[in-house]
Structure prediction request, 414 residues.
Amino acid sequence: MDLGQDIGVRLARGDDDALEECYALYGSSVLAYLGRLVGRDEAEDVLQRTFLDVWRHADRYDAEQSFSGWLFTIAHRRAVDHLRRRRPGVIPVEVLREVMGDDGRETADRFAWAADVRAALLRLPPEQRETIEMAYFGDRTQREISRELDVPLGTVKARMARGTRALGSLLRAHGASPGDTARGRGGQ
Amino acid sequence: MTHEQIVIDLPALLRGELGRARLAEVVEHLETCDGCRLELVAATQGHSTVAAAVRTLRPETGPAAAPRAHDGAAAELPPLSHHRRRWPRWQRGLAVAAAAVVLGAAVLVGVNRESAPSGAVQTARLSAVTGAGSGEVTMRSPGRSTYMTIRTRGLGAAGPGHFYYAWLLEPATNKMLPLGQVGADGTATFEVDSGIVASYHAVDVSLQSDNGNPGHSDTSVLRAQY
Prediction:
C-alpha cells in the first residue's frame, strides 16, 4: 500500500475530509511541479483545476495503483490543457521537453516520488520533521539548527537520526519506491 | 564510544558535517561493527530519499538563491476552492430550482428532433476541446425562436455516471447558459429565444458527472463559435 492509497480510497467514497488531507499532504508538491511546467504565476489556477478533477474523478482511482502517480497524471494533463490554450510560440522548448514524451513522464514520476517523501515527512513526530526540514529544505547544519531551536546539539542529532530512520521505514512499509509511482500512470 | 553515539552521528556523516577527528572515529568504528553498518544503510536510504525530494521540489532559482527557510518544502498553498462534489441537499435543491427557472423562463428547451421549422440557417463547426470529437451546430431562426440542432461525431460513450451536456457560452466573459443533455445518439435540438442566442457567441459541449451538481464540469469536449 502506498502512502496515499488510503486517501485515494476515501476520496473514491466521497469523503470530503480526504480531499483536504490530500491537499495538505500533496498540494505543495503538485504546486512545485505545475510551477515548473506553466510558471509560478499560473500554477495556482492549474492546481485548483487539478484538485477539482481529483475530487470529480475520484471514483476512477484504482487502489491497486500508486496514488501519487495518479495525482500527478491528472496534474500533468491539466498543465498540458493549460499550455494548449496559450498562444502558440510562447512555450519554451525546455518546458515542452518536460511536458512531452519520456522526459515528461520521468519528470512527473520524479515529482510523484518526491511528493510521497514529503507526505511521509508530514507524518513524522513534529520535532523530527522540523529538524529534517531545517536541515534538508532549509540547508542548515546541525549546529545552526541547535542554535535556532535553542536545544542541545545532541538532541538535534538524535532527532535527525530517528527521523531519517523512521522515514525510511515508513516508505518501506508502504512499499513506496521511485519505480512504484510509474505504475500509477493511468486514466483519470 | 557506544553504538548509540555512532548511530546519531550517521546523518552528519552523510551530510559532510563531521570534523576530521570525529569522522575518523566513526569510520574506524564502522569498519569493525556490522550492527552500525546496517544502521548506516538505513540512514543512507533516509538521507538519499530526502535529498532527492529536496532537489526535485526546490524551485529552480539558481545557486545564489538557495532557500534558508526551514519550511521551504511547503510552498505557500492557496486555499483549496470549489471542491465539493456533492452539494448539501438544500443548496442542491436551490441550484436545481434556479436552473429550472432559467431554463423554463428563457430557454424553453424543446427536444424536437423531427421538425425544425424553416427560416434563416446558420451553421457553426464544433471542434474538439478535449479528445477527438467533432460536429456542427445548425441554427434556424424562423421567428423569435432559434432552433439549435447539435450533431456530434466521435465523442464516444460518456461512460457510467456521465453524460454530455450543451451550453451557450460567451467567451469574453465565460458566462454560460445551460441548454440540455445531448442524446445518446450524439444529437439534440433546442428551441431558444433568439435574443438569448444573440447575447452568446459559442456553443459548448461538456462531459458531466451525474453527481447532482448543475454547474459546468470544466471538462469541455466540443466548442463552436458563431
Summary: Residues 61-74, 84-92, 105-117 of chain B have pLDDT under 50 and may be disordered. The radius of gyration of chain B is 31 Å. The longest helix of chain B spans residues 34-57.
